[in-house]
Amino acid sequence: YEAKQKRSGWSVFSERNTQIGRQRLQLRADLENGLSEEQIKLYYQPKVSLIDGRIIGVEALSRWYHPTDGRLSPVHFIDLIEQSCRVQEFGRYVIQNAIQQLSIWHRQGITIPVAINLSPYNLLDPDLLNFTLTRLKDYAVPPNLLEIELIESSTSMNIDYISARLNDFKDAGIQLAIDDFGTGMSSLSYISNLRVDNIKIDRSFITDFEQDPKKQAVVTAAIALIKSFGSNVIAEGIENKSQADLLIEMGCLCGQGYYFAKPMRADEVETLLLSNTSLPLA
Ligand code: C2E
Ligand code: MG
Ligand code: MG
Ligand code: MG
User: Fold this and answer.
1) Can you give the pTM of this predicted structure?
2) Does Transcription show up as a keyword for this record (predicted)?
3) I need a surface site. Which of 4, 144, 194, 209 has the fewest CB within 10 A?
């Protein structure tokens, strides 16, 4: 009986896999139009000062308005893009859109930085820095308003190469952040050799950490380590006030999370920025 159940369980699983496989093939095929028709839009999630809830920056997060599947979140398509020949095109697309938005805000006197997510693969694009600097110039946006968050990717790419490319961006005045700190590949020697402005402690360490002394010990150590690199600490995934309070006590003064604000459309975040609001909204 057990064997039979296992077998049927397996067959259901495999059927589902084929279905997902088929969907992914379709999505991959849809990518071309997705990019050329600008179906992928940037949402923006505020980063705040934990002390007074002031917005200190925003992070651009992609959403795909797929013509038949509706609004897709990045889990459904980022790795597809990274495995496709469109990865460089996508990196440039995101940079271009973020800079356009920055210029709109800059002209209204809003001078908060916009961070975009890039994967190490994007750094293989030999002309990416040139592309970025040209766009910044064309749109009259100061380089220090753009920040690159290097996301974790399962990559065996040469770490010295990644570091050198990142430092080129830094030399050009663009801000650098390490995303999802504490997970994945980022070796400490690699990070300590980068001039990183911000390091973001991964959400998994913040989730429920107010009830978990082990996680608290890890977060305390991470904060000390990040400060020893000379970088600013940002906590990801703050979902309630006790987490924010505990982080302040530990010396982490910046954060991001649903407690303060979810990712939102450009016009929504613009309203917030123009009203000088502190988060969370009461
Ligand atoms: P990330 O850069 O670490 O972004 C944070 C993710 O956590 C976002 O998910 C955000 O919506 C979510 N988040 C923020 N606060 C909270 C919270 O309090 N609770 C919970 N449960 N989640 C929270 P999202 O937008 O689905 O993006 C997922 C990942 O996809 C990003 O993680 C980033 O690695 C990648 N990604 C998103 N947009 C882009 C992009 O334009 N380019 C590239 N290369 N990767 C992107
Ligand atoms: Mg990020
Ligand atoms: Mg992150
Ligand atoms: Mg992440």
Assistant:
1) 0.93
2) no
3) 4
Ligand 1 residue neighbourhood (C-beta within 6 Å): 45, 61-62, 73-75, 78, 94, 117-119, 149, 151, 179-180, 203, 236-239, 256-258, 263
CA of residue 11 to ligand 3 center, whole Å = 35
Q: Which DSSP string corresponds to 211-249?
A: G-HHHHHHHHHHHHHHHHTTPEEEE----SHHHHHHHHH
For ligand 4, a single-atom ion, which residues have Cβ within 5 Å?
A: 180
Average pLDDT per run of 10 along the chain, which is 282 residues long?
Answer: 44 62 87 94 98 97 96 94 93 98 97 96 94 98 97 73 93 96 78 91 97 98 96 98 98 98 98 95 82
Q: State the Cα–Cα distance between residues 267 and 107, nearest whole angstrom.
A: 15
Residue 262: C-alpha distances to residues 46, 100, 180, 185 (Å): 8, 22, 18, 27
**Which amino acid residue places its CA nearest to atom 21 of ligand 1?**
237
Which of 183, 203, 247 gets mutated to test ligand 1 (max ligand atoms within 8 A of its CB)?
203
